[in-house]
Amino acid sequence: MNKFIEVNNLCLSYKNQQVIKNISFSLEQGKIYGLIGRNGAGKTSLLSLLASFNQPTAGTIKIDGEVPFENARIMQEVAFIYDRDFKDESSPVKEMFDTLKRYRPNFDEEYAKYLLDRFELPLKKPVNKLSKGKKAALNVTIGLSSRAPITIFDEAYLGMDAPTRTFFYKELLEDQARYPRTFILSTHLVSEMDYLFEEVLIIHRGELVFHDDFETLISRGAAITGDFSKVDQFVQGKKKLSEQTLGRTKSVMIYGNLTEEEKEKARSIGLDIGPVNLQDLFIYLTEEGK
Ligand SMILES: Nc1ncnc2c1ncn2[C@@H]1O[C@H](COP(=O)(O)OP(=O)(O)OP(=O)(O)O)[C@@H](O)[C@H]1O
């Protein structure tokens, strides 16, 4: 495994509140990571450390073998795109991209123009006069066209309508195929974005409670669907994450691995076994009291 980003025993405190608690993980080059966690879990705090916007209280971060904080070479490799209001940005959209060219070595002007056009961003309009959704589109354009080896989107979609978000996800995947880099996507739109993630990190109350590939995470549970009475009987004694009933058909998400014997039994009575969805698992893994 190529450890492009290595985080060891990372801690961050604001005054006497510890918001990042002894987190360790490593991330590879060229993969898309989903970072999820409930409100106040510490996602932005963690990302701001990776982007050198903050210094750890304890522990270490290494990017490409070097400590990133106040390290000009590494800092230009990291693009941190977060929900910004651009309120002091009175220059026109076009000017922002002229500036970007100077400090993003991989910036692709043609690609930026293509995205600005597709997002229908008016080049002459002052940035702070754009609507919220257009500001988000501008932000995403900066993130994608910078082609930084580490690109972090922290709820960068806020304000975008559904068709625009769909376009953003499609572009992200297509550009990743052309120019692979490490993406970290922090989001609350778990069910909408989960297909983008190759690996998932779940942070809860400042601790990393899960980090593995997407397939491994969703294989921790199963969706059992079929005749409601048979489903009820089969899931008895199992940890239920959620359930839905339509007429006589019921679907129950359960947590925990099924043995081969159990799978065989379910099939023999006409039940269907499917994967659990990430959102239900996430809700379960971060339930209060866990
Ligand atoms: N500048 C700051 N000063 C003091 N406390 C802060 C500061 N920034 C964040 N915190 C606190 O750190 C904790 C983690 O906040 P953070 O913004 O990292 O969470 P988050 O997971 O990104 O949340 P959300 O999903 O709500 O955006 C919260 O308790 C928050 O109040």
From TrEMBL:
Note the Gene3D superfamilies from the entry: P-loop containing nucleotide triphosphate hydrolases
Q: Which UniProt keywords apply?
A: ATP-binding, Nucleotide-binding
Q: Name one GO molecular function term.
A: ATP hydrolysis activity
Describe the location of the ABC transporter domain by residue ranges: 5-230
Alphabetized InterPro entries for the sequence: AAA+_ATPase, ABC_transporter-like_ATP-bd, P-loop_NTPase
Task: Please give one Pfam family short name.
Answer: ABC_tran
Q: Which residues form a coiled coil?
A: none
PANTHER family per the UniProt record, alphabetical: ABC TRANSPORTER, ATP-BINDING PROTEIN, SKFA PEPTIDE EXPORT ATP-BINDING PROTEIN SKFE
* Protein name, entry field: ABC transporter related protein
Organismal lineage = Bacteria, Bacillati, Bacillota, Bacilli, Bacillales
